[in-house]
Amino acid sequence: MVDNLAPLFSLLCLLLLPLYPFPASAQTYNNVSLGKSLSAGSSPSSWVSPSGEFAFGFQAINNTDAFLLAIWYEKIPEKTLVWYANGDNPAPKGSKVQLTSDGNLELNNTQGEEIWKAQSQSQSQSQSQSSVGVTYGAMLDTGNFVLVDTNSVHIWESFKNPSDTILPSQILELGGMLSSRQPTNYSRGRFQLRLLNDGNLVLNTIALPTNYAYAAYYVSNTYASGYQVVYNESTAMIFIQSKDGSILLCLTVESIPSTKTHYHRATIDFNGVFTQYARPKSSLSSNGDESWSIIGSIPDDICSFNSQDVGEGICGYNSICKIVQSRPVCECPTQYSLLDPNNILSGCKPDFILQGCYENGSGSQTEILYRMAELLDTDWPNSSTYQRREPYTEADCQNSCLYDCQCAIATFNDGHCWKKSLPVRNGKQNSDVAVKAFLKVSAGNSTQRNPHPPSVPEDYNPGSNPNEKEKAQGLFSVVAALLLGGSLFFNLIFLAAIFMGVLMYHKKPKEKVQKPISLETNLQSFTYKDLEEATDRFKEELGRGAFGVVYKGVLGFDSKLVAVKKLNKVQQEGDKEFKTELSVIGQTHHKNLVKLVGFCEEGQHRLLVYEFMSNGSLASFLFGSSRPDWNQRTQIAFGIARGLMYLHEECSIQIIHCDIKPQNILLDDSYTARISDFGLAKLLMTDQSRTNTAIRGTKGYVASEWFRHMRITVKVDVYSFGVMLLEIICCRRSVDLEIGDDERSILTDWAYDCYRERRLDALVENDMEAINDIERLERFLKVAIWCIQEEPSLRPTMRKVVQMLEGIVEVSDPPRPYLFVSVAET
CATH classification of 3-21+28-112+132-300 is 2.90.10.10, yes or no? Predict the structure, then answer.
């Protein structure tokens, strides 16, 4: 969330609140009487709210016999948790939670030992006079579990004792706190959200297992004024308000879907980001956490946090934090691995022994044991720097660290070199970080020398370290001895032999060494023979395109099916296309993209190996003999939109596909849409104004700017997606001249006419599943028409498309797509 927009959105909160008052305080109760209990692993295992929206009870942890006492969304298939009591102490099967006869809510194991307790207490005044005790408990439709006394006062409530989540109608008071959970379980994590007693809302890490708080990585700056964090039930806005009820800061800055049509929650995620989520109530299919869409989050970039305060930082010691798909991801650098393989926030350790100084401090074995790995746009600022050198070149900086037994990492920027020892913290990788990092890593069995041996820093004393000059001097001594000790005739023959040997050595063609395209791709390298055998000599063809043919193959002992794309032998463009695919696709990871497994670069052979998609292409799925299920089609549309959003906005380099069509959308075992064929993708660097390429794409899906000498942007993919979305809606091809009816032959024209004349039933040919879901049908149709606008600036971004499809953003009435007849139509 952008801090400089806070005053504007605070004003927006103020303007909207009168229109959406708080709900009445009266609640409908499903009473839990004194003495009632639930058992972990037995039925019934929960107490449900009156409407059935929420449930209180036991949830198994990762399908084990360990249980959480929790509250969850009952109607959502994955039972999203919104509160839990015993994350640090899971309950074994058979444990019992009971509202005791004296009004205490207790969780005990099978031996009767206490695991957790919510003891009811009246307000702090004289309890002997005012306390009347708990008479029942209740699970409310707000998601709040309460213990209630005879005066209808909430003696205890889950809303006042939150875990990692707050819900609409919930208020966080001064001193209130949310704690993150661990990545793989529900024990307490390293991150906290707190409303301090001084009025500031802060996010910070803690020094587990203690509660000691490190420096805050987010501060609301509402000092001396903040009083409550309010999650408004009607508007779903989250804001900080003062004691007099005025709004100081609105934490919700994006478009907010209605609470009538969407579920809402806000959670401090395991990665430390406070995130507000929404999920449509009309779509309750079990799609995991992906069915929850992000409305907003703070901070915008947690990886940019930099503090001199002690502690592990965001991702743990020696790790690197970077933003992927707008979310933080923690990774270990080259030749480092997680301290705890089950915890991505545990920090990293070297996979090799980083030894200290050698005999006499000379470091004579350094070049054999270590090399320097380069990491672009990476830094560990204000972390373990023990020495600074300037002015230095990159080579000076690398060698200074390589030959320094205390140095593990060196960072370089503009002639400045910072040498660091382990551990380092607050590592980050971002294109805005104009710093190179050089990491001392194991050289393995390689005798490869440092890439810049001529430049030895002034603080390095080579001592007895052998170099090429010494080796040459030794060879010269041997030759001289032979010449002086032999006859004239022998010497002449010996010199001639040396001359011929040198001449032949320089004439001998050197074998080309293939370098990996990217150290980050982890792609498997295959020989041509490997792939020839895997495909049974390229026997079964799966499809063909502009740059090659795809064959079915089988790899390894486990008989893993793959798709092998054999690129055409194009001397220049084809080779360039291959390099592009390797360096870019190998670094793309998204559930709606086909994964690249490996490659072959041998002589003139250029092949790519992809994971095999068992359910073929979207084209065969849509245009077959029977009409596919409407809900399945909508989920496919969602998947394609998310995949394109990733390519356009969430890759380190923006990718334009340029040939989005049903033939290039594949379906996996569960019919999840996977975008394929990046052979036509164009990469736009930040300093490029347009692509320099010939017209690409397929007739019927090509945007008009290809023909109008306009700038080619991601909007060409948006246009193609719009055409394909119409095909998904209607289950027919965009151009079908066999229909015979001119009115219906061009789908884009026919779709707009049907929308304008309100003939949606005719458009979908009486598809009753779609007609019965008329609200979504109309929304999808309007999104498609916005996408196929002839003017690129009128087309939405793919992020906006995703939000509109999911119902998070309202879709306005689109204008006629075609403003004039394009060159393509003449």
Answer: yes
